[in-house]
Amino acid sequence: MCDDGPSICIVMLMGIPASGKSYFRQRLEVLLKNGSLELNNVYPVSISFDDYIDSEIDFHKDPSIWKEKRLDIYSKLENMIDKLINKNSLDTNLCAEFDLNVANQSQLVVFIIDDNMYYKSMRYKYYNLAKKYNTSYCQFYLKANLKDALIFNQKRKNVVSDSTIIKMYNNIEPPNINNKWEENSLEIESFIDFNNKQFLDSITSIVQLSVKFPIKSTKQENNKEEAQKVTNTNVIHQIDLILRSIVGERMNKAKESITDVKVLKDVGKVYCSRRIQILQNIKVGEIMLPFPALTFDNLQDVELLKRFLFQYI
């Protein structure tokens, strides 16, 4: 243990359901505890989303519940990190798996996050958390064959619907090591042999590298992030204006065939609800825009986005 407390590393496990994440997490815990990764006095803390969120909670059907559950897990992790670094005396909203006494007696605390994390935006939030506290961060992507995942899923205790697995398989965004924030990432074939020396060396290298070089947040980066937040807010506002214009066009079309005022009002409520949901889906990455950076500098961009969004209303 260091005088200033233990070092901290966030290890992100990602992949579709039934890709072997839980198996990998359990094996990784053992490797960290017994020193196989050439790191001493390590305290691994596993946070499996399956223990907190029902796998069948659908974002589209229960967006508020889905978001609330995920936010609670994120808050628990931040509270635990804050408690270790800032010696916060509060014991509220911590994971049951976390033992503060053991953590404080360790040289390194590794928080293993076990979830699908199929969108980059989901993972980037945790990277930013690591940067906020100047801790370490790395990722392991459990790559699974869809056919094998569907078969293995039927053998699990908590079976996930095939449609959920297929949806995530079709939408997953693998790590890109060319992105600076994802440079400490490793793609792994599901259920790989842990006795494979080359495999163990790869895991050791990724974890050691991330621990050796924790993420540092500079003043320049902070200013850039604040500017990006403003840009994102402006983009969402522009998208909302486009959605409102689409709703207006839809309502004008509806008026041509609907004369009942009450029915027309109900149709308007449906379109309004869809507009709000689409904005939320864009914010959390459920809907990916047709081009990465929206500047709205020309009408062509606006028209392209309008045609793209028309399908959702």
UniProtKB/TrEMBL annotation:
KW RNA-binding (keyword) present: no
Keyword set includes Protease: no
InterPro entries the record matches: KTI12/PSTK, P-loop_NTPase, Ser-tRNA(Sec)_kinase
Gene3D superfamilies reported in the protein's UniProt record: P-loop containing nucleotide triphosphate hydrolases (3.40.50.300)
Pfam families xref list: KTI12
MF GO annotations: ATP binding; kinase activity; tRNA binding
Taxonomic superkingdom: Eukaryota
UniProt keyword terms in alphabetical order: ATP-binding, Nucleotide-binding
Bilayer-crossing regions: none
PANTHER family referenced in this protein's UniProt entry, alphabetically: L-SERYL-TRNA(SEC) KINASE
Name this polypeptide is given: L-seryl-tRNA(Sec) kinase
